[in-house]
């Protein structure tokens, strides 16, 4: 309103809480300004207002209909004071009075007694209530202009430009930043768990079957005319296990099967399972290849680097067989 009064428009004329709109960013914007000039330029008669719509209108404008068509700057200040009352008491204009809008308009137009909204002292800071009462003064020249109102509100905030909405936005922004960081961390954790699940699924099932399961597609049984199945086990594994600790057995199998897994990756075969010392692979499924037998007849070279455990196990195996 301070800016509006400094423009060529100069007067709003119809200021109420109903044309104070809030956008998606919680910024208040004043609408319906300049309508008196618009009606006059178009040669139109402004719509007749009801008593309820006139509750924001100053006494002098109520008494002079011709003056009310254009409005005045002191009249806008009076309307602003009524809007302040709505904000303070969280209610409509003059809501604390048991009177109809028609009765209120009649009493405002023809004092005495002087009728104004009744606002308790504890409803808002005393400075705010004082500004509100100055805005709805009976004499138009006694009302402050919006420059003065702005300065008084600035003093009310001790020179700060923050208000409850700014504080709320700061809290929302802080919460939003924390929420974004939390979502990012949870998303990373979800991606890691998803990769682990996919790796586990690909180890348990052929990749073609795993992909269908992840997509929710049914896995139909297939018939394969020719496949090659390869079994291997460790010679003397029972004897090795008898002379080894459980951890040594686990380390042996882990090192050996890790080498096996790394080797079969270079061939078109699929590891079905490992049970104890048995290592089972199959060629020719789930992808049909003509040389499946050749793919399975592979030679696995175990050459652990910087790892003496497997060599130690081989030596122990040789000594056991010698005995």
From TrEMBL:
GO molecular function: adenylate cyclase activity; ATP binding; guanylate cyclase activity; peptide receptor activity; protein tyrosine kinase activity
Domain of life: Eukaryota
Cellular compartments annotated: Membrane
Coiled coil region boundaries: 165-196
UniProt EC number: 4.6.1.2
Any single Gene Ontology cellular-component annotation: plasma membrane
SUPFAM superfamilies the record matches: Nucleotide cyclase, Protein kinase-like (PK-like)
Main location: membrane
Enzyme class: lyase
Catalytic reactions on record: GTP = 3',5'-cyclic GMP + diphosphate
Cross-referenced InterPro entries: A/G_cyclase, Cyclic_nucleotide_synthase, HNOB_dom_associated, Kinase-like_dom_sf, Nucleotide_cyclase, Prot_kinase_dom, Ser-Thr/Tyr_kinase_cat_dom, Tyr_kinase_cat_dom
Domain Protein kinase stretches: 1-153
Sorted UniProt keywords: cGMP biosynthesis, Coiled coil, Glycoprotein, Lyase, Membrane, Nucleotide-binding, Signal, Transmembrane, Transmembrane helix
Biological process per Gene Ontology, one example term: receptor guanylyl cyclase signaling pathway
Record domain Guanylate cyclase: where: 228-296
Record's bilayer topology term: Single-pass type I membrane protein
Protein known as: guanylate cyclase
Organism of this sequence: Tenebrio molitor
């Amino acid at each position: 309103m301070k800016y509006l009064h400094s423009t060529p428009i100069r007067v709003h004329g119809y200021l109420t809480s109903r044309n104070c709109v809030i956008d998606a960013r919680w910024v208040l914007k004043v609408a319906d300004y300049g309508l008196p000039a618009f009606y006059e330029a178009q040669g139109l008669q402004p719509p007749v207002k009801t008593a309820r719509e006139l509750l924001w209108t100053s006494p002098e404008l109520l008494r002079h209909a011709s003056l009310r068509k254009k409005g005045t700057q002191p009249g806008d200040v009076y309307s602003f004071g009524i809007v302040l009352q709505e904000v303070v008491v969280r209610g409509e204009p003059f809501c604390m009075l048991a009177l109809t809008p028609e009765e209120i308009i009649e009493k405002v137009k023809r004092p005495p007694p002087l009728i104004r909204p009744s606002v308790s002292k504890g409803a808002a800071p005393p400075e705010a209530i004082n500004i509100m009462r100055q805005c709805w003064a009976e004499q138009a020249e006694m009302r402050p202009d919006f420059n003065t109102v702005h300065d008084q509100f600035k003093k009310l905030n001790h020179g700060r430009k923050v208000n409850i909405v700014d504080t709320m936005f700061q809290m929302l922004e802080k919460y939003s930043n924390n929420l974004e960081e939390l979502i990012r961390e949870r998303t990373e954790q979800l991606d890691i768990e998803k990769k682990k699940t996919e790796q586990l699924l690909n180890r348990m099932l052929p990749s073609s079957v795993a992909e269908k399961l992840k997509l929710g597609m049914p896995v139909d049984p297939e018939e394969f005319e020719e496949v090659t199945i390869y079994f291997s086990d460790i010679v003397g594994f029972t004897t090795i296990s008898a002379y080894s600790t459980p951890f040594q057995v686990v380390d042996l199998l882990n090192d050996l099967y890790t080498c096996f897994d790394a080797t079969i990756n270079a061939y078109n075969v699929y590891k079905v399972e490992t049970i104890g010392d048995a290592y089972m692979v199959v060629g020719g499924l789930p992808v049909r290849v003509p040389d499946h037998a050749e793919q399975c007849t592979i030679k696995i070279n175990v050459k652990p680097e910087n790892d003496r455990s497997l060599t130690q196990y081989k030596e122990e195996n040789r000594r056991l067989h010698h005995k």
